[in-house]
Amino acid sequence: MVSLETPVCEFDKPAVDFTLPGVDGKTWSLQDCAGPNGLLVMFICNHCPYVKAIHERLVRDTLALKELGINSVAIMSNDPAEYEEDSFENMVRVADEFGYPFPYLLDESQEVAKAYGAVCTPDFFGYNADLGLQYRGRLDESRKEAAPEGVRRDLFEAMKQVAETGRGPAVQIPSMGCSIKWRD
């Protein structure tokens, strides 16, 4: 398992459109997912310890962002042939187990992850109402285990600022996680 950090935010880079199947049986596009004040696009998976450590916080923060007009979507781009835990059936199970309040989509071709430049799980892309990139950082101090209670909620605070001003913070701490499992 390779641990990687995300690159620096490319402010105002447009969100890439997609059409992907969700664990809810629907097909979702970028426009279907976007909220009135923005969109958080998350690349996650089921097997990664960095993602497992933040499930509850991810649900908490995406629910709070929805109240601010920022919707969220999670995309799983790993090759499930390498990790059975990342199969579509297990995506359905995990989304149900944690009560994901956002669409959880399968990027089987891995083309969406490549178009976004996703490198790890979790990898967060926060967009404003115009779907221009404003945040490419971490959720909080969590790594392979959840950070202590009360730590700064980096992603939530950044996206709250985006909802209020349309702009993300100038200083962002990169997300860290397992490398995306690319097909050969």
UniProtKB/TrEMBL annotation:
Residues 9-161 form the Thioredoxin domain. It holds the Pfam family AhpC-TSA. GO terms for molecular function: antioxidant activity; oxidoreductase activity. It comes from the Bacteria. Gene3D superfamilies: Glutaredoxin. PANTHER family: OS07G0260300 PROTEIN, THIOREDOXIN-DEPENDENT PEROXIREDOXIN. This is Thioredoxin family protein. It comes from Solemya velesiana gill symbiont.
